[in-house]
Amino acid sequence: MDEDMALALPMMGDDFGNFPALAPVDDSPAPLGAAMEMPAAAPPVNLSGKAKAAIVVRLLLNEGADIPIEDLPDDLQIELTQQMGQMNLVDRDTLHAVAGEFADRLDNIGLSFPNGLAGALNAMEGKISRYTHSRLRKEAGVRQFGDPWERLRKLAPEDLAELAQAESIEVAAVLLSKLDTAKAAAMLGELPGPIARKITFAVRQTESVTPETVDRIGLSLAAQVDARPEVAFDETPGERMGAILTQSPAEKREEVMSALDAEDQEFATDVRKSLFTYSLIGKRISPVDVPKITRVVPQPDLVTAIAYSSDDEDVAASEFLLSNMSSRMAATIREEVAEAGKVKRKNGEMAMSSIVNNLRDLVVAGDVELISSDEDDEE
User: Fold this and answer.
1) What is the pLDDT of residue 296?
2) Is there a contact between 249 and 353 (Cβ–Cβ < 8 Å)?
3) pLDDT of residue 45
4) What secondary structure letter does DSSP report for 231?
């Protein structure tokens, strides 16, 4: 048998069944009638499941197939490798019989399910309650879900920064090293300057860290993530209150904010960071984004809001919009504003809310990016 075409034959023994012996090659010419006879079907191969799996894997590897064997549990990878180490040669009939059986099983598959609880939870994520999903994940344990670093890489930069600050500088350096470049840079941006510098210097010390140590660190960090209590709200209290007050009438908004300033200055500051009103358009929107707003906001709402503007901040926001839209559209709106006269408060606030709501839709869609209030303060 050509050695390049040969596959591993299990060593003889009770564990691997009986194998047909390699038949000698008969070079004598066959009778004419025999050439027309169909070959007899290959006899069933008496092999263990492990031996058959090793043959199929070896065949696929010979053909250059990229098999994700590393996705198998560690114990199965060990068993497969040990089985292949016990194999020797396989004759062609045995190879064809095993490959045919494997192909038949593939043809008979009508439906496949995720592999293990990890795959099932990934498939059911968003379909079952967050509480149930979290409970099953915790009960199964971290190792049940494959590479812990894959889960850690999906965390937001601020969450990664929080993990890093709770650990030693050396562990934080390993965490930083295992992230992709963009995520690592974002995590550093969320850290205080002195801590970020210490972690950066410590990366040099990760050169001699072993894979086992990195794996243990990943498991420990992932376990900490799973141990966090489930929260009911995705947004912070300041973000929720800011969104509510954005939709509230101006008079009520000012009343509530005055009370917050008197009772809880810190919370009031958090609310203001998420508060967005018509008067803030000039401070939170880039001039190049104004045409995007004018394309989605009905022109009557623009006219009403601009005509209703009276205090300095609202007037400044109106001028910002007019100055950055097309000159023809600005001229038309100015004419209609002059003709509109005095606007009732209810109509004016509804028009301003319409502009803000459309703007928020653009932000959610990713078409417009708000300038943060922190950046505005720094300027």
Assistant:
1) 94
2) no
3) 60
4) P
The CATH class for the domain spanning 146-227 reads mainly alpha
Residue 363, Cα to own-chain centre: how many angstroms? 20
Cα 264 to Cα 50: distance, rounded to the nearest angstrom: 68
Architecture in CATH of 276-378: Orthogonal Bundle (1.10)
Q: Does the global pTM surpass 0.70?
A: no
pLDDT of the residue at 140: 65
SS3 87: strand
Place of tokens 């810190």: 266
How many Cα atoms sit within 13 Å of 181 on the Cβ side?
Answer: 0
Amino acid sitting at position 311: D
Provide the residue count of the chain. Answer: 379
pLDDT of residue 129: 82
pLDDT (0 to 100) of residue 316:
94
So what's the pLDDT on residue 117?
Answer: 74
Q: Residue 23: what pLDDT? A: 39
**pLDDT at site 373:** 59
Q: Is residue 38 helix, strand or coil?
A: coil
pLDDT, position 146: 60
Q: Return the closest-CA partner of residue 73 out of 113, 105, 112, 118.
A: 118
Q: Write down the domain spans for the chain.
A: 3-21+43-107, 146-227, 233-273, 276-378
Structure tokens at 344: 């009732």
Residues 6 or more apart in contact with residue 348 via CB below 8 angstroms: 304, 305, 307, 308
Q: Looking at residue 74, what is its pLDDT? A: 78
Structure letter (DSSP) for residue 32: T
Q: Is 10 helix (H, G, I), strand (E, B) or coil?
A: strand
**In this structure, are residues 107 and 98 in contact, taking their beta carbons and an 8 Å threshold?**
no
Count of Cβ atoms closer than 10 Å to residue 6 Cβ: 17
Integer Cα distance of 188 and 241 in angstroms: 29
> How far is CA 281 from each of CA 101, 121, 182, 234, 277, rounded to the nearest angstrom?
68, 43, 30, 26, 7
Q: Are 16 and 48 in contact, with CB atoms under 8 Å apart?
A: yes
Stretches in the chain below the pLDDT threshold 70: 1-45, 115, 138-146, 230, 373-379
